[in-house]
Amino acid sequence: MTAGNRLATGGRIDRSRPLNFTFNGKPYTGFQGDTLASALLANGVRLTARSFKYHRPRGIVGAGVEEPATLVELMGADASGNRPATTVPLTEGLAAKAVNCWPSLEFDVGAVNQLASRFIPAGFYYKTFKWPNWHLYERPIRKAAGLAAAPSEPPATGHYETRYGHCDVLIAGAGPAGLMAALTAARAGLRVMIADEGCEAGGSLLSRRLTIGGADAMNWVAQAVAELAALPNVTHLQNATVWGYREHNYLMVTERAPANPSLLERTWRMRAGHVITATGAIERGLVFGNNDRPGVMLASAVQTYVNRYGVTPGKRAVIFTNNTSAYAVAANLAAAGVEVRAIVDSRDSVPDDARAMVPGIEIMAGKLVTEAQGARQLRGVAVAAKTGGSARIISCDLLAMSGGWNPTVHLWSQSRSTLRYDEPLATFLPDTPAQAVSAAGAANGALTLQDALRSGAEAAAQITGAQSPEIPDAPDLLYDIEPLWRVETTKGRAFLDLQNDVTVDDIHLALREGYSNVEHVKRYTTGGMGFDQGKTGNINIIGTVALAQGLAMEQVGTTTFRAPYTPVSFGAIGGLREETVALPYRHTPITDWNLAQGAFMYEAGARWRRPGYFPRAGEGLQEATNRECRAVRFGVGVYDGSPLGTFELKGRDVGRFLDYLYSNVMSSLKPGHGRYGLMLSDDGLIMDDGVCFRLDEHRWIISTSTGHADAINGYMEEMLQTRFPGWNVFITTVTSQWNNATICGPKAREVMAALGTDIDLSPESFPFMSYRDGTVAGLPARVVRVSFTGELSFEVNVAPRHMRDLWAKVMEAGQPFGILPVGSEASHVLRVEKGFLSLGHEVDGTVDAYDLGMGWAMSKKKPDYLGKRAVQIRREGAAPRRELVGVIPEPDRQIPEGAPLTPGGRKERTEGFVTACVWSVVHEKWVGLALLEDGHARHGETAHVRLKGGEVIPVRVTAPCHYDPDGEKLRS
Amino acid sequence: MMQIPCPFCGPRNESEFSFGGPVKPPRPDPLTVSDEDWTAWLTQVPNPLGPVQEQWWHVRGCGTWLSIWRDTRTHEIVEAPDDGR
Ligand SMILES: [Zn+2]
Predict the structure, then answer these.
(1) Which residue from A843, A636, A846 is spatially nearest to A750, judged by alpha carbons?
(2) What is the mean pLDDT of residues A217-236?
(3) What is the CATH number of domain A645-733?
(4) Which residues does chain A have within 8 Å of residue B43's beta carbon, measured at their own beta carbons?
(5) What pLDDT does A674 receive?
(6) Is B30 within 8 Å of A868 when comparing Cβ atoms?
(7) Choosing a second label site near B76 at 20 to 30 A (CA), which of A19, A87, A517, A860?
């Protein structure tokens, strides 16, 4: 290795499998089993990042998800942004670069921010960049502050997956407590899932040199893993983070490297009977001057690099601690040949068993590191007595700091379970569970190995009801701590949150400016935000607030812990639910035919794919639409009306149920006949319109608009089940049980005759708004005389299996009459010519039936129906109403849909808007519909459309119906 | 995601249900109620901090409309339906 930082033996890396990688374009080599961070340290790379706000030089601080300083962007096939280098497994060909350091890590323009840093205190952005508005500054500031950009392309191969899972016990963490819990629960026969974020099981045992039952602790881990693997009731996941704990014991677990080459990641949505959070503990940093210099690291991370990766992150080390755990780190460093120059311990007295671990190393009790020296790399530390006084400079290139341990309570807290502050451990501990959850091991404050094992076993035994098993002997140094939230006699900038560049001064400023609640402090300073969510610094922030306010820790309290525990890919949350997989299209049986005809397909409501128009060579939308409209008005056309929502209602009480649902009377219909109706909600809004046919005494069929079918179904069921549970009504959705070809136009009857039918088609025996069952073209059919175009129409309904056959026969029989297929564009034109309303256009939350000129649909006879009372109350008010009218632009031109109408075209409050405007093939000019204040009284007048930019178009106000106002055609 | 007890299907994921809003008092008789009371019934929806009775439609299951008492602070279902109403 280039810089000689790799030990010749030891660690859980495979020295026979070297891996090449690049960092900021430079080539390096590491080993299988390395992380990017351990490989960089092995190569002697100390300066790995620039900080977010001040662009200060930063190095690697942690060894896992707690890493606050070194975020990298991965390139190439692995492209992803803002990954802590400590969590990126090294792979052959990995290409990574540091974020936050344009144009380069070594020469960083943004570092001028550092010179001006006294001008960038907390809240600086809020206070400074607010005139004229923030968005003016947002882009350049974001670029300068710049975290990595999101990858522009999705991964070229592979996909994400989500799945559901169920278990009796979900254990988060496969360290000593988690494994012990899993063994105990699994042996009792419970269905167990154990998930761990690391690439191998063992947790803290991977980093420490301990024994269980007299042998290397990792032997015990291997045995436990093997036993779990042999049990069919256990699912054991590594590289899998339990990152979200929701209500009703629903948890999110994402596997980053599932055992399936085509899968990028897999998320398990777990419903667990019980949860054990065995999530370990994360070490706090210490807060002193320039504590962010490259070479200042968490003691536990140093231990991990030495023991797990065989890497020495420095040659001459100083330890700074307020607790006993760092003594083992000093011992491990010394054993690896690193010169440990001193242990600076803020406690006045150091326990004898700790002293005994570090023979020959100078212990400076009751002393503090007040300042780290050096710029791009640590050169030494200043050590002084707690009371101040002169400092002694100790030169070193590594400072391993330990501010004590925080149980990882994130999942516990996400479950809404409470925390309490524990004085002896100087940290927050799980208190009262809010769901079926228990905490075990270090996550529950069991900070020595034997305690952790026992705690895991007991947590599981409480669920199984069995006796807790015997715990093997596992000697460990007793944990002893004296809190040190910050070094008060410090020089230089003392960072609490390295990722967001939040210092002690920032917290004090926030407090001075009145942000005294810890949640406000967090938001004002951004301390504890970002990718690491303050895993190393949050408790020090709380301590700093407590010191400044003279409060106890529990009085300050923690900020809320929210999901995700660590960053999760959006892909892993969405899984396969993308594009049409998330929302599949619905098709009628003739989609293939439509496509073969070159139809331009639209999405109609409720994800139905329908032809918009059928362009011929050289035609655009308008030409094709005109041609289709002319066919219907002057010859014959046919469209597929199958997507319309259709329901069959059966039962004694359907009549009165429909009278309640619709504003007009339906119960008076005779079998064989139908009626158009409006459905209102109880607050008087028009919910839907459609037709209703009575099949026989107790059987009815109703249609709804395509997009509202599902909602109306739910609404009808709600009414029946909650308001009229005793009524005898059964609703069956038959939208896809019937398909239809609707033949419309003056020649429709001739086409029907050519198809061959046993139904008498004469208007006398088969009038408008009636239906007949019979055969058409040899197929069993129900023919309905409704019209949505204003022309003579026969809606020929057949079973879906006959639809293609029917369609082919209609096209064949219609050919001599020039029949054309009609798309939704033409349907729109035809309905606007007729003044037929379309819910999305003419109906919004303000209009009622009277405004639409459909007062006839509001029954006077029925004492009560949905919406009646509300419409009554609203119409008693004197406010002017916007009423549906026809508009004819003068001069003749198109008006955009939605264009406002203003009095005289002046720049005043609008008095309505144009709801639709189409080229009428009947009048050969543009005609439209509009909602206009007092419109019914203004037929013949001129109103004015005012376009954006001030252009004014006069329009003549007419009745809404532009064609065949007496309905002779559709009744013919 | 909540787990909602359906009287016919047992405990099922919330994603199978469609939310029907809090249960309102019975619909007043529109022929006798005052405008104020009618408008209040239409527009005022229970929104307590704590248990609220609400309707859910098991639309991707058996189709039943059911009601539960749910604590809005915790999502705890404090009273489950026994007859689907
Ligand atoms: Zn159900």
Answers:
(1) A636
(2) 98
(3) 3.30.70.1400
(4) 683
(5) 97
(6) yes
(7) A517
Instruction: Report the distance separating Cα A278 and Cα A276, nearest Å.
Output: 6
**Which numeric CATH code is attached to A493-567?**
1.10.10
Is pLDDT of A22 > 60? Answer: yes
- Tokens matching residue B23: 């249960």
Class of A3-113 per CATH?
A: alpha beta
> Can you count the helices (H) and strands (E) in chain B?
1, 6
Sequence-separated (6 or more) residues with CB below 8 Å from residue A501 = A51, A52, A53, A54, A56, A495
Q: Which amino acid is at A281?
A: A
- Evaluate whether A935 touches A956 at the Cβ level (below 8 Å): no
What does CATH list as the number for A285-403?
3.50.50.60
On whether residue B35 sits in a domain, the answer given is no
Residue B30 lies in a domain: no
Contact B65 A869 (CB under 8 A): no
Beta bridge partners of A311: A6
Query: Which tokens in the block code for residue A368?
Result: 């503090």
- The helix/strand/coil state of A803 is helix
Lookup: tokens for A793: 């129409």
A796: amino acid identity, one letter: V
Q: Which CATH superfamily is domain A159-281+407-464 in?
A: FAD/NAD(P)-binding domain (3.50.50.60)
* Residue B75 in contact with partner chain A when CB distance is under 8 A: yes
Residues with Cβ within 8 Å of B27's Cβ and at least 6 positions away in sequence, in order, are A682, A723, B41
Question: In the predicted model, what is the mean pLDDT of chain A?
Answer: 93
- Answer whether residue A554 shows pLDDT above 70: yes
Identify the pLDDT of residue A2: 40
Q: How does A134-158 read in b/e, with b if 16+ C-beta sit within 10 Å?
A: eeeeeeeeeeeeebbeeeeeebeee
Lowest mean pLDDT among A64-73, A320-329, A847-856, A870-879: A870-879
Q: Say whether pLDDT at A105 is over 90.
A: no
- For chain A, residues classed under CATH 3.50.50.60 are 159-281+407-464, 285-403
Domain containing residue B81: 1-25+48-85
Q: Name the stretches of chain B with pLDDT < 50.
A: 83-85
Q: What is the ipTM of this complex?
A: 0.95
Check whether the bond before B26 is cis (ω within 30° of 0): no
- The answer as to whether B4 is a domain residue is yes
Find out whether A396 and A374 touch, Cβ atoms under 8 Å: no
**Chain A positions in Cβ-Cβ contact with residue B3 (cut-off 8 Å):** 248, 250, 271
Q: Do B20 and A683 touch (CB under 8 A)?
A: no
Residue of B nearest to A166 (CA): B13
**Angle at CA of residue A51, ends A45 and A55, nearest 5°:** 100
Q: Is residue B16 part of a domain?
A: yes
Distance from C-alpha of A456 to C-alpha of A276, rounded to nearest angstrom: 8
Q: What is the pLDDT of residues A623-660, one digit of tens each?
A: 999 999 999 999 999 999 999 999 999 999 999 999 99
Beta strands A793-798 and A779-784, pairing class? antiparallel
The gap between the terminal CA atoms of chain A, to the nearest Å, is 94
Find the distance separating the first CA and the last CA of chain B, reported in whole Å.
22
Q: B63 to chain A: which residues are within 8 Å by CB? A: 717
Q: In whole angstroms, give the CA distance from residue A84 to residue A752.
A: 72
Strand ranges inside A736-893, DSSP E:
739-744, 771-776, 779-784, 793-798, 820-821, 882-889
What is the reported pTM? 0.89
Interface of B with A in 32-71 (CB under 8 A): 33, 35, 38-39, 42-43, 55, 57, 59, 63-65
Q: Is residue A147 within 8 Å of residue A499, measured between CB atoms?
A: no
> Mean pLDDT, to the nearest integer, of A253-263?
91
Residue A822 confidence (pLDDT) above 70: yes
- Tokens 């028009």, residue located: A686
Cis peptide bond upstream of A564, omega within 30: yes
List the CATH number of the domain containing B57.
3.30.2270.10
